[in-house]
Amino acid sequence: MLEIKDLHAGFEGVEIVKGVSLTVNRGEVHAIMGPNGSGKSTLSKVLAGHPAYEVTAGSITFDGKNILDMDPEQRALEGIFLGFQYPVEIPGVNNAEFLRMAYNAQRVHKGEDELDPLEFDDLLVEKMKLVSMDPRYKDRALNDGFSGGEKKKNEILQMAVLNPQLGLLDETDSGLDIDALKAVSAGINKLASKDNALILITHYQRLLNYIEPHFVHVFSHGKIVKSGDKKLALEVEEQGYDWVATATK
């Protein structure tokens, strides 16, 4: 589904991603771990098309299409979803209406008819049940006044509604207590299938106690320095990131 080859990218002239190659197939869950400043979140923003980040070399293909020339909204319509580490509060924008407009934009892109508000409300209520989210939140302003856990759960609700082919979840576990982490992880597990793929970006192994990755990749200084299965995450948890960087030199 996703093929990244020798990707170099940066921000304001500073190279952050320094030659990353990664293949992601349908049905796979990949976890990307690494310390602060290692390039994990930059990679997710580059994949989503954040305009502040410049790709200087390499390629990214998604379902066989070169996405580097696509705007962020075009990438989203093609099936790429980014769940933010710090979801933005947008007072005055109704949560349900925001989701309906995003969902209908996707339907129009596929040549399908839009859903009216009543039809969409039925779909939204079902998706909220799927991620164990209180239906009252559909009538709130987008993330406005939400707790950290509620914001992250709302990101998973967005993913449930849009049903992307590729979900990029940037430190979804940050700032969550154990109950919120379990709830968010349960929602993510319900959405994972043989037809889509997930890339989980995290500092800590604890998220992977609840979401089982097929592959774990450790970032250091803008590169993937080691890949393995879940055992690698446990080793990193026990020995720290310096161990991986030293072991791969």
From TrEMBL:
Domain named ABC transporter: residues: 2-246
Gene3D superfamilies named in the record: P-loop containing nucleotide triphosphate hydrolases (3.40.50.300)
Keyword Metal-binding tagged: no
Keywords linked to the UniProt accession: ATP-binding, Nucleotide-binding
Taxonomy, superkingdom: Bacteria
Pfam family, any one: ABC_tran
SMART domains per record: AAA
InterPro entries to which the protein is assigned, alphabetical: AAA+_ATPase, ABC_transporter-like_ATP-bd, ABC_transporter-like_CS, FeS-cluster_ATPase_SufC, P-loop_NTPase
Family: Belongs to the ABC transporter superfamily. Ycf16 family.
Protein name: Fe-S cluster scaffold complex subunit SufC
Gene: sufC
